[in-house]
Design brief:
The chain has 212 residues and is of the alpha+beta class. It has a single domain, classed as Sandwich (Jelly Rolls). The strands form 3 sheets. The protein has a 7-stranded antiparallel beta sheet with strand order 1-2-11-8-13-6-3, covered by helices on one side. It has a 4-stranded antiparallel beta sheet with strand order 7-12-9-10, with no helix packed on it. The structure holds 2-oxoglutaric acid and fe (ii) ion. 2-oxoglutaric acid binds next to strand 6, strand 12 and strand 13. It comes from Actinorhabdospora filicis. One of its GO terms (cellular component) is cytoplasm. Its cofactor is Fe(2+). GO terms for molecular function: broad specificity oxidative DNA demethylase activity; ferrous iron binding; oxidative RNA demethylase activity.
C-alpha cells in the first residue's frame, strides 16, 4: 500500500486533498468524460492566436472556453453539452470538504466544467482562470497519470510558486485570495495511472461558476 498523503493548504484559499475521489468515483468520472468527449460538441485541441494549438484536448460542459471568453456554442457549431446536476453536486461536496465550511459550499453552483486530456507530451502553461465573472472557487479533480501542478501568485506568472503532485483521485480547490493565482501543469508522469483505472494519460476536470 502506498503511504497516505496529507491534505495541504498550499496558499490561502488553495487546498490539496489527496485521494478525495474513491476508485469507484474515479471510474464513473472517467466513463462520463469519455461520453462528453464524443462528437458532436466533443473534445478538441483549442487553437490559440496565430494558429498555434494547445497540446491538451478539451471538452467543456455548460459554457465552452475559447480564447478568451465563454460561449454556448461548441467548436463544431453544435450547442455545448449541459452541465449535469450530479457533477455540480459533487463540486459542492468537494468544496465543503476542502474548506470545512458546509454553509459556504451550499451556495456553490458551478455551471461550467472544463475537461482536459493530457497525453504524455501535453502541458499547460502559466495562466489565470479569469474569463468567469464569478469569484467563486475553482474545484479540480484529477484522474490517471500523476502530474506536477504549479501554483504561483496573482500578479504575474513568475516565481515564487509551489509545485504540487496531483495524483489520480486528488481534489484541488483554489478560491478566495488564490482564485486568480497563476497556475500550470508543466509535466505529467506517463505510466503512473493506478491500475484500477483504464486510462493512458491524464484527465483533469475543473468546475467553475461563470457568473454569466
Ligand atoms: O489540469 C489541471 O490540473 C489544470 C487545468 C487548468 O488549469 C484549466 O483547465 O484551466
Ligand atoms: Fe486553469
Amino acid at each position: 500500500m502506498p503511504l497516505p498523503r496529507d491534505r495541504a493548504h498550499v496558499a490561502p484559499g488553495a487546498v490539496h486533498v489527496p485521494d478525495w475521489l474513491s476508485p469507484e468515483r474515479q471510474t464513473a468520472l472517467l466513463a462520463a468524460s469519455r461520453e462528453w468527449a464524443r462528437p458532436p460538441a466533443g473534445m478538441h485541441q483549442i487553437e490559440l492566436r496565430e494558429g498555434r494549438k494547445m497540446s491538451i484536448r478539451t471538452v467543456c460542459l455548460g459554457w465552452r472556453w475559447e480564447p478568451y471568453r465563454f460561449t454556448r456554442v461548441a467548436h463544431d457549431g453544435h450547442p455545448v453539452k449541459p452541465m449535469p446536476q450530479w457533477l455540480a453536486e459533487l463540486g459542492r461536496e468537494a468544496l465543503a470538504d476542502a474548506y470545512g465550511r458546509p454553509e459556504l459550499a451550499a451556495s456553490y453552483a458551478p455551471d461550467i466544467a472544463v475537461v482536459n486530456y493530457y497525453d504524455r507530451e501535453a502541458r499547460l502553461g502559466m495562466h489565470q482562470d479569469k474569463e468567469e465573472r464569478s469569484l467563486a472557487p475553482v474545484v479540480s479533480f484529477s484522474l490517471g497519470d500523476t502530474c506536477t501542478f504549479r501554483i504561483g501568485g496573482t500578479e504575474h506568472r513568475n516565481r515564487p510558486w509551489t509545485d504540487v503532485s496531483l495524483q489520480s483521485g486528488d481534489l484541488f480547490v483554489f478560491g478566495g485570495p488564490s482564485r486568480m493565482a497563476f497556475h500550470a501543469v508543466p509535466r505529467t508522469f506517463p505510466g503512473t495511472c493506478p491500475r484500477h483505472l483504464d486510462l493512458v494519460g491524464r484527465v483533469n476536470i475543473t468546475l467553475r461558476m461563470s457568473g454569466l
